[in-house]
C-alpha cells in the first residue's frame, strides 16, 4: 500500500494481517483525519478546544496499542540458557498483565496470562515470557488466537517437553456495549506436549495458577 495514496476506507485484511512483514501504516495526518471524522460521528465538534489535540493523541495511542504488528514476538525468545542444573519441572510465570484489543469491535481486552513450560535442557529469561505475551496481545485479537500464538511460539523456539498457556480476560465489547454485562471473564487454554497428555501435570499447573 502506497502511503501517498492512502484512503482510510481502503485498508484490506492483507494490509493489516501480514504476519512476518507488517504493511506500512497510514501516515500520522491520515490517522488524525480519520479520528476527526469519528469525533464528528460521535456527535461532537472536532474543532472544540477539549478535543482539538485528541486526533494526535489517538494516533500516538495506536502506536502503543498495536505495537505488536511491528515486531516478531518470537524474537524475544532468541537468548536461551542451557545451564539449568538439570531443572526439569514446570516453569510458570503467573499473572502476566494483558492488554489487547478485540478485533470485532476494537474494544479493550484486559486480563492476565499464565505461561508455563517444561524445559528440555533449555530455559529463557522469564521477562521474555511477558514480552512474548505483550507482543501478540498488541494486535487486533481473538482471545483464542492470542492464547494459541503464545503457546506455539514458545513451543517452536524452545522445543520443551510441554507448554501451557491460560488466559483470563474481560472484553470491553461485552462490558460497555452490546450485552452490557460487567464481571464476566473469558478463560482460554492451550495445552501442548506433557500438559496435554498428562492429567496430573495439568492439574498441578492449574493448582499453581490458582495459588501457590
Ligand atoms: N470467541 C470470541 N468472541 C469474541 C471475542 N471478542 C469478542 N467476541 C465476540 O464476537 C462476537 C461478534 O458478534 P457479532 O454478532 O458479529 O457482533 P455484534 O452484533 O456486535 O454482537 P454483540 O456483541 O452480541 O452485540 C460477539 O459475540 C463478541 O462477544 C473473542 O476474543 N473470542
Ligand atoms: Zn469485541
Brief rundown of the structure:
Belongs to the GTP cyclohydrolase I family. With 212 residues, the chain is α+β, with helices and mostly antiparallel strands.
Model description:
There is one protein chain. It is elongated and about 65 Å long. It contains 9 helices and 7 strands; from the N terminus they run H-H-H-H-E-E-E-E-H-E-H-E-H-E-H-H. It has helices at residues 13-17, 28-42, 49-52, 54-65, 126-137, 143-158, 172-175, 194-197, 199-210, and strands at 80-81, 91-102, 108-118, 123-124, 140-141, 162-171, 186-193. The chain has 212 residues and is of the alpha+beta class. It has 2 domains: 3-65, GTP Cyclohydrolase I, Chain A, domain 1, CATH 1.10.286; 73-210, GTP Cyclohydrolase I, domain 2, CATH 3.30.1130. The structure holds guanosine-5'-triphosphate (GTP) and zinc ion. Guanosine-5'-triphosphate binds next to helix 6 and helix 7. Zinc ion is lined by residues 102, 104-105, 107, 171, 173.
What spatial form do the alpha-carbon principal axes imply? elongated
- Annotation, overall tally of beta strands: 7
Mean pLDDT over the residues: 90
What is the CATH topology of the largest domain?
A: GTP Cyclohydrolase I, domain 2
What is the CATH architecture descriptor of the largest domain?
A: 2-Layer Sandwich
**What letter string, H or E per element, gives the SSE order?**
HHHHEEEEHEHEHEHH
- Could you say which structural class the secondary elements and strand pairing correspond to? alpha+beta
Q: Which molecules other than protein and nucleic acid are bound?
A: guanosine-5'-triphosphate, zinc ion
**SS strand fraction:** 15-25%
How many angstroms separate the termini? 50 Å
Computed Rg? 20 Å
**Unreliable sequence segments:** 1-18
CATH superfamily of the largest domain: GTP cyclohydrolase I, C-terminal domain/NADPH-dependent 7-cyano-7-deazaguanine reductase, N-terminal domain
Number of helices: 9
Share in helix: 25-40%
Identify the strand order in the major beta sheet. 5-2-3-6-7
Query: Largest sheet, described in full?
Result: 5 strands, mixed
Tell me the number of structural domains.
2
- CATH C-level of the largest domain: Alpha Beta
